[in-house]
Design goal:
Largest sheet of chain B: 5 strands, antiparallel
Helix content of chain B: 40-55%
Oligomer: heterodimer
Shape of chain B: elongated
Helix content of chain A: 55-70%
Number of strands of chain B: 17
Number of helices of chain A: 15
Chain lengths: 311, 486
Amino acid sequence: MTAGWSWYVIILTLGAILACVLLLVWARTTRAGEPGPNETLGGDFDGIDELNTPLPRWWLGLFVGSIVFALGYLVLYPGLGRFPGLLGWTSSGQHARAVEEAQRTYGPIYARYAAMPIDELASDPAAVAIGQRLFANNCSTCHGSDARGGVGYPNLADGIWKWGGTPDHIEKSILDGRDGLMPPFAAAVGEENIPAVVAYVQSLSGRQVAPALAAAGEAKFKTVCVACHGMDGKGNIALGAPDLTDDDWLYGGSAEAIGEGLRKGRHGIMPAHRDLLGVERAHLIAAYVYSLSKQDGAQTAQQVSSATPAR
Amino acid sequence: MTPARTTAHAHAPQRTAAHPRTAHANASHPEEIQLYAKREAIYQKEVQGPFQRLRAVTLFVLAGVFLVTPWLTWGGRQAVWFDVPARKFHLFGLTFWPQDFIFLSWLLIIAAFSLFFFTALAGRLWCGYGCPQTIWTKCFMWIEWLTEGDRNQRMRLDRGPWTRQKLRRKAAKHAGWLALACVVGTTFVGYFLPIRELLPRIAGLQLDAGEWVFLAIASLALYADAGWMREQICTYACPYARFQGAMFDQSTLTIFYDGGRGEPRGHRAKSFDHRAKGLGDCIDCGLCLHVCPTGIDIRDGTQYECIGCAACIDVCDQVMTDMGYAKGLVRYATEDGLAGRGTHILRPRLVGYAAVLTVMITLFTIALWRRVPLAVDVLRDRARLYRETRDGAIENVYTLKIMNKDQRAHAFSIAVEPADAFVLDGPQAVQVAAGAIADVPVRVRRMPAPDQAPTVPVAFSVQSTDAPALAVREESRFLAPRRPAA
């Protein structure tokens, strides 16, 4: 706020309060020619008179009290332009205190769960319920409320893992994020070879393709793609290279979708949540996600809802 | 700055001249015209009589119900408990959630119409017999009477110098007021914080700052109101006092002074034949002024300050009996009746109010009876409009929020409609604790059809498997690609 605006606010605020004071002083007595107390103000409203009734003095006290309160408030709290107030109150400071207080309340709960291993938490209904709510608030936008993802966002409930499905792998994915990069291979493979390589890749998952075309693609696959996806096409969780033999396709399993990925590459980023959520919350989300792949989804949801507390 | 003083009577302006309070104020400050009026103290004289006995009955019943209700229990918890932090409002076997706000609106409409009805019938019955303001003021006046004595003693005490005895009496009065205010204030807070836990926590000084403030405001507000403010609230702050005049008409039973019979007023001996000397029945004893809690003279006609307490009726009837005159110089009467015209109590306005009131109460009762303590919100996943499964089906994801508003746990089954078009993938049965909300993600699938619109209605029906009456159907939309995938 510039000094000009600051003074504008100060003058307007104090001027309004001063105007209220002057109004109260001005209205104290009647003037010559005006009706006195309890005299009619004139006019006939269907046989009803309006009288110049004096304001009770205690009511005047309410006005005075409001003015005193306003001045006291302006001295203690920010309100007069850039003057911060004697108490030094700020909304960000209040937020920080609220966070601190919440930390005092909920910190012990999270600390207790943080000390437990994830596979143990995954069978604790109360922990899973907290994890589900954290997931709904932080993860479901991309992965869906049911954690079954969609095009470009992995399904977390099907037991298929690009980066590994152990509790430690899942927790690391949440905390530090993942950067899944399939480079563009249009130049390295050659446009004329792409249909053959795509056919070979589809054949790895048992899809119906022309055998000759697939066979033609195998050589190219084994020189270019195996570096990441492996000789058998089963991928590599250290690189996030997907298993191509399980007929699970992050970007779609059609020839067009696979061909596009091969030509132009794919780039999927799971952002790091260490600073966004903190280690303890990520731990509980990891437990929830782990429980999804471990158990039948319906069963989990049933346990979760019965454990939801009243508030 | 100058609130309007309205009165339905043309002769009302003249009453200021005869009004003892105003006359006194003008006499002491003849030169200064003040528009901030100093409050005139009112010393109400104690009065007995049939109407005061009726008021005592309503006082004991209403104050008793208020004080006892928080102590009732129902199913292991406080029977009437407004749990604001949890947004749950327990009334015996019913628990209302914020979604049930419509019932409160209905209740307020019913309250408003009963106020209209009873005001049109007999004026300010509410003020005189039912209002908490009147009831607690009455209790505080009783404490005042116990500690400071009757009207004359109180006036003497206030005029006199500060002696040790005056100090003792005043201290006793305020101690009594504060004690009663604390009892009532704590009871009030007990409707919001369970009273059986509240009292030990107060005794152990275990409340948090907000709860102490709540308790202090509830108690001190009553102390200030029933001890100090009294008729000032009725006269200047209460909106009902301001608009009730609009619901009166010539057939409304109101407390009237029968001027035709009473005037000309004048002192006289009991043996005196006042009729022969041209005097009316009013002996101008001033008792009706002394018993009035708002400090008005009922003989000046209907005034908006009158709260309909009927103290002047009771006291005047005593005087009339003592004098050997007929009772009822001040009585419940209608304007038409006093003017000698016929009074029609059953008039269209009253019948109309009664009809609306009956309809509202009936509908409210039926709605309450048919209320299903189950609510379901359907939240469609919005980040992804739809999903294609491996076998080509179109899938939408929904989160069902199943709110079990009942006081028992229930198991719920979920079904999707129309059942021949959609397949539901999600939990078939969900157990939800009493008063809990379950978040249940479900998937709905259908095979793409060439003629399918991109968005079609879908409905979820949630029904309790152990109480079939607990059933709710909620609609949503199912989205699919405009052209089905090849």
